[in-house]
Amino acid sequence: MNTLQIFVLLFCQIFSCNTWDYCIIGAGPGGLQLAYYLQKVGLNYVVLERNSVPGSFFELYPRRRTLISINKRHTGETNSEFNMRHDWNSLLSDDPELVFKHYSKEMFPHADTLLHYLSDYVEKGRLNVQYNTTIVRVLQEHAESFTLLTEEYPFTYSCRFVVVSTGISVLNKLVYEKKGLIQGYDTVSHDPESYEGKKVLILGKGNSAFETADLIYGRTDYVHLLSRDRVKLSWNTHYVGDVRGVNNNLLDTYQLKSLDALMEADLNDDSTEFEERNGQIYISQVDHHGRYERGPYDVVINCLGFKYDAAPLANLTGITETEKYPEMGWDFQSTTIRNLYFAGTITHGLDRRISSGGFIHGFRYTARSLGHILAARNHGIRWPTVSVPLSGVVPAMIKRLNEMSGPYQMFYVLVDVYVRYGDRVDILYDVPHGMLHKIHELLAEKRSSKLDMIVTRLVYGAEYSKVGGDPFRLDRVETDPFLAHTCNFIHPVVYHFTSLPHVVPVKSKELRGARSKIHLPEDLYTDFGTLNHHVEPLSNFIGTVWNADLQFRDPINCLTTTLTHSGISGTCLKRMPIVTQGSKMKPVRVSATLTPPLNLASCL
Asked: Are 8 and 18 in contact (CB under 8 A)?
């Protein structure tokens, strides 16, 4: 223990430190979402925010003040869970008024509206947020306690658990910014008039770069975007962090030969130099032909993105600021510091370029999952479950597949778990797939190598979402249930486990250790309730792996089966309903032909 830690320990013994079970650093959307669920189960917590408002990042960013998170107010459905699939700004809440469609009618809302929404979320939820509290250092006195030092000395906080939810808020800087040759995204003028007739170089090809270019390209001589990698478009990769269509107008003027351009070069190369001559800026680099020069430019803007702020954690062993994201496991706990957790966009290091965990519509669910993990691990509170009889598991699963928003937004990563206990099935929603090998911890049960569970999740086709692929090719749709494993668009996969799943590595979408699995075919409206394509194959699969009579047939198919087979399924005698209260499912068209038996081998 160093001198500073000894001083703090003595100070807290002499004076009273603020003592909490959970200290959440940062009142952005991720920190607030976690606070909501800690409060919901009655846990002792405080949110510490350095500024005077929640979500203060959005006071400045995005600089153009237009969010790229969609606000689709109308879906044709009244199911609130389903509608959250297309609401990328709301946090999760039991208050029906805390839905973003009540705050803005714009498809891409103004950032100030999000600030208003977050303030209401704190006030209406009565969340315990302490503003104007800047954490400058996190100290771990021993394995069971942390001390947080504040800039507002001598105020300190003593916490059993610390959750860092400070976001990705530190801009990546270049040394030439200090020399005045490059302007930062945070300070550069966003008044289009100031670029009238100028030559502009923007460093980067992400959304901040294209947002800036889209704002000014109509006023300039030309705009060039320069970075090491090629541009990645979200509609091509299915990754929401790639360049969005709302920002990419410059691609038209580039491809249609109107002076604007995209260029590639490694800005971290030691040979890269920026030089000012006669009031204009030139960039030079070395390749195998020798040194070459680009320019002249009147303005050079750094839009190379953000990373997390590791400064408060600098005193903890193993925490560095060399990476964009801190290292953590699928329980969102630091891999090196016990009882140090992360929430919000800072957790996106787990699923970057795999799912949506870096954005509100993704991390609102992982923050809720973290709340459930903390409650189960530290307080013995069982993960929230829904129980259904075995005979009702297929309708419950179909209904859930048709409306669930967590696994829809966090495809691959969040799964639903159906654990069988004889004639009863307990359902756990929105479990991180990397926590399945610890399912007994979430259930607050003794660990056992044996279990009988079914897991559902949503996935894209393996070759569909990639840079350079063709997402619009004519053969992109596959609706044949016998070829569902070749589907490209988002569709369900159902797994059966009889032992604990394998440990999932960080930054992996793999799910291994299943005894068997089946893909269900994609659907344009993600309606997975059609009889022949989804319900019957799913019933067949679950009935087979659980050795239960769950066959689901329409009346005509039941009659045909009775006439052509020696026996009749019990469910043909009393047909299970497809449409249940609150379900998105629609009536199905009855087929007059007997559905062929499902060949499970073709789906494994």
From this structure: no
**Contacts with 604 (C-beta within 8 Å, 6 or more apart), sequence order:** 516, 517, 518
Angle at which helix 536-545 crosses helix 393-403, to 10 degrees, equals: 130
CA–CA gap between residue 157 and residue 125 (Å, rounded)? 23
Contact 476, 488 (CB under 8 A): yes
pLDDT, greater one: 461 or 367: 367
Closest alpha carbon to 194 in 176, 174, 212, 181: 212
Are the C-beta atoms of 122 and 130 separated by less than 8 Å?
Answer: no
Q: Would the pLDDT of 321 be above 50?
A: yes
Q: Which residues pair with 283 in a beta bridge?
A: 274, 294
Percent residues over pLDDT 90 in the chain: 61
Residues 382-435: tens digit of each pLDDT: 999 999 999 999 999 999 999 999 999 999 999 999 999 999 999 999 999 999
How many C-beta atoms surround the C-beta of residue 258 within 10 A? 12
- What angle is formed at CA 86 by the lines to CA 356 and CA 56, rounded to 5 degrees? 60
Largest CA distance in the chain: 94
* Tokens read off for 212: 């800036």
| Confidence label for 565 from pLDDT (cuts 50, 70 and 90) | low
pTM over 0.85: yes
pLDDT for 573 equals 43
Helix, strand, coil in percent for the chain, rounding step 5: 30, 25, 45
